[in-house]
Specification:
Number of domains of chain B: 2
Radius of gyration of chain B: 25 Å
CATH class of the largest domain in chain B: Mainly Alpha
Largest interface: A-B, 35 and 31 residues
Distance between the termini of chain B: 28 Å
Radius of gyration of chain A: 23 Å
Distance between the termini of chain A: 60 Å
CATH superfamily of the largest domain in chain B: MetI-like
Largest sheet of chain A: 8 strands, mixed
CATH superfamily of the largest domain in chain A: Periplasmic binding protein-like II
Helix content of chain A: 40-55%
Number of domains of chain A: 2
Structural class of chain B: mainly alpha
Oligomer: heterodimer
Largest sheet of chain B: none
Order of helices and strands of chain B: HHHHHHHHHHHHH
CATH architecture of the largest domain in chain B: Orthogonal Bundle
Order of helices and strands of chain A: HEHEHEHEEHHEHHEHEHEEHEHHH
CATH architecture of the largest domain in chain A: 3-Layer(aba) Sandwich
Shape of chain A: elongated
Number of strands of chain A: 11
């Protein structure tokens, strides 16, 4: 009988031991530290990983986990109540806010630029004006040597090739920041596509999953143009276009220019901004938010969330520039801390 | 000793065992029940799964009904959904994969099962092809983006330049395309076809081969007129199994198909498959109707694979009858 063979006994003993050891560790971990679980945007994921690692060094009794599942996914989990906090690059709309029973606060933690990357062998320093950029992505300008593009780029030899736009296949805060800008500078784009996480692009462009997917497609496809979070331009070595801003200046995506853009955005009391074309700086700049509940069931958790937000907006901000994100202007950060301290409670 | 005799003998031995130790009987019966429960819960799992998918798909089924199958519009913002481009992409890319993989897979099977190559060439060859099955599909997909598409692109451009009068090659290729998806799927399913076909070919009784040879048939006449027809049911089975794999393959396809929802006769144009849209949009789907539409797509894929499997069973039966 198999039940009495030494091998069988060995297997049973080992598996029982493994289970005991694994569970045992889990239980001790729970008694030692409070765990905050979060999920959401992939755009600030590298930043949050750093934040939460540093935060746990300072507060060893609080453990913060973050899963980058996408802005929409984060909001979904927040509504379902399966996380302690979420993160999104697109501000929650009123309908979404209404669905969160415990109430929600939106805390801006960082800003980031969305770069327009392109793959045109032999062409560098491409400039795209307000008239050109929306028309490329709505399929009105279809060839690289279009006179409108040439007018912005005197002296640059543009090839007679089809423009192949590359966009996101998944719903994405990056798409929101990008379409938000295009809608702000072009009325046709606004009515045809609008500012949304899941745009319905005219002309069926190529689609990649996530920033890495779009970057890979642009890198592989000559004649393509796409949009990714600015940090990905370094990784892929693709040139990023200079984009015209409200002042009429052509600006490349840099942290300094994105910081300028953010400083020009006015934050309302609930920190929800939809500014698509800041007065100065790099125009395709967006804000990313941590979304926290207004009510937590335990006092410990409430305190932990307050500590976390305070830390992110004070000590955490100094990591932003190094990782390619912009800082939140100090005055806005102070307001946000006050909002959290007075706004979160245990019922 | 005849078979019934032997069975009887075994039963007696078992009977004696139980009499010797009643504890054994209890264990034996307990074990039998355990196995039964496992078997039934596996079947139950399938039913449970389909029920959950159906429930989640319900809002979309109620809203769009059968129009969903024919509509080409997929607009998350306006919450209007249609499945046609995805069904088209899944069916066409899988068919393309079969067209490429069946001849190549059969060739591999024949070469590795016949003896015109020395064993030290044949057996590593068979093992290497089998190894393709061990590569995770996400790796195949990455290889597809970074290696295969750049290699395939000049070929696609050539097809467009010289054969553009054929509708299948009538659009300017941009890299990722239906053709690229077909090729990558062919690579993924190649081991399934070749390994099973090889086993089937090896199982053909030697008498058939000897009889054919002794009647004066050449090796290739024997292969094409005797061996292949005799193993047809097995090869069809292998092909259908591979088709099932191709229909369900997700990551590798997502990375090279271009994820562009449209129906275009040209194989050089990017397309979209059911599995790809599920992988791309599910994590971010918020609205009930959006989730419902995705689940509806999953249900459609489920039905397609079910039909494919039914056809497989029927065809294997028909071929087996013919041979007998």
């Amino acid at each position: 009988m198999i039940f009495f063979t030494p091998a069988f006994r060995l297997v049973v003993t080992t598996s029982l031991l493994t289970v005991a050891v694994t569970l045992g560790q889990g239980f001790t971990a729970i008694t030692q530290a409070l765990t905050l679980n979060g999920a959401g945007a992939t755009f600030p994921k590298p930043l949050y990983d750093r934040y939460f690692a540093e935060f746990s060094k300072k507060y060893p009794d609080i453990q913060v986990n973050y899963e980058g599942i996408g802005s929409g996914g984060g909001i979904k989990q927040l509504i379902a109540g399966t996380v302690d906090f979420a993160a999104s690059d697109a501000a929650m709309n009123d309908a979404e806010i209404d669905k969160v029973k415990q109430g929600v606060l939106m805390i801006p933690t960082a800003g980031g630029a969305v770069a327009v990357i392109y793959n045109l062998p032999g062409v560098s320093g491409l400039k795209l004006s307000h008239t050109v950029l929306p028309d490329i992505f709505s399929g009105k300008i279809t060839r690289w040597n279009d006179p409108k593009i040439a007018a912005d780029n005197p002296g640059v030899e543009l090839p007679d090739e089809r423009i192949k736009p590359v966009v996101r296949a998944d719903g994405s805060g990056t798409s929101f920041i990008f379409t938000n800008h295009l809608s702000a500078i072009n009325d046709d784009f606004k009515t045809q596509v609008g500012a949304t996480k899941e745009p319905k692009w005219p002309g069926n462009p190529l689609k990649g999953k996530g920033n890495p997917g779009v970057a890979a497609l642009v890198k592989q496809t000559a004649g393509s143009i796409g949009y990714v979070e600015a940090a990905y331009t370094k990784q892929t070595n693709l040139p990023a276009a200079s984009v015209e801003n409200q002042k009429g200046r052509f600006v490349a995506p840099s942290i300094a220019e994105a910081n300028t853009a953010l400083a020009n955005i006015k934050f309302p009391a609930n920190f929800r901004v939809f500014e698509g074309n800041p007065a100065d700086g790099y125009p395709i700049t967006g804000v990313t938010w941590l979304l926290v509940y207004k009510h937590y069931d335990s006092a410990e958790k409430t305190e932990a969330v307050k500590k976390l937000i305070q830390w992110c907006l004070n000590d955490g901000q100094k990591f932003n520039n190094g990782l390619g994100y912009t800082e939140i202007p100090a005055s806005v950060a102070q307001e946000a801390i006050e909002t959290v301290n007075s706004g979160i409670s245990t019922p | 000793m005849t078979n019934p005799d032997r069975a009887k003998q075994y039963l007696e031995v078992e009977h004696n065992l139980f009499q010797a130790d009643p504890k054994n009987l209890l264990l034996e019966q307990g074990f039998t029940w355990l196995v039964r429960i496992f078997a039934f819960s596996t079947a139950g799992l399938l039913l449970w799964l389909s029920w959950i998918i159906f429930q989640d798909a319900e809002p979309a089924i109620a809203q769009f009904g059968s129009d969903f199958l024919l509509s080409q519009n997929w607009n998350v913002g306006e919450l209007s959904f249609g499945a046609a481009p995805f069904i088209y992409g899944t069916v066409v890319s899988s068919t393309l994969a079969l067209l490429i993989a069946v001849p190549i897979g059969l060739a591999v099977a024949i070469v590795t099962s016949e003896n015109f190559l020395p064993v030290w060439v044949r057996s590593p060859l068979a093992t290497l092809v089998e190894l393709i099955a061990a590569i995770p599909s996400v790796i195949v997909g990455l290889w597809g983006i970074y290696v295969m598409i750049p290699v395939l692109q000049p070929l696609q451009l050539w097809l467009y330049k010289h054969l553009a009068w054929i509708p299948l090659f009538s659009t300017e290729p941009s890299g990722p395309s239906m053709l690229a998806a077909g090729v990558i799927l062919a690579i993924v399913i190649l081991p399934t076809i070749s390994v099973i076909s090889r086993d089937v070919l090896l199982a053909i009784p030697l008498e058939l081969r000897n009889a054919s040879m002794s009647l004066g048939a050449t090796r290739w006449e024997t292969i094409f007129k005797i061996i292949l027809p005799a193993s047809a049911s097995g090869i069809v089975g292998a092909t259908i199994l591979a088709l099932g794999r191709a229909l369900g393959e997700t990551m590798a396809v997502t990375m090279v198909i271009g994820n562009s929802a449209g129906i275009n006769i040209s194989l050089l144009e990017p397309a979209y498959s059911i599995t790809s849209v599920l992988a791309n949009e599910f994590a971010e789907a918020l609205e009930k109707l959006h989730i419902g539409a995705l689940m509806y797509l999953a249900l459609i894929l489920f039905v397609i694979t079910l039909i494919v499997n039914l056809i497989a069973v029927l065809m294997v039966n028909i071929f087996t009858k013919k041979i007998n």
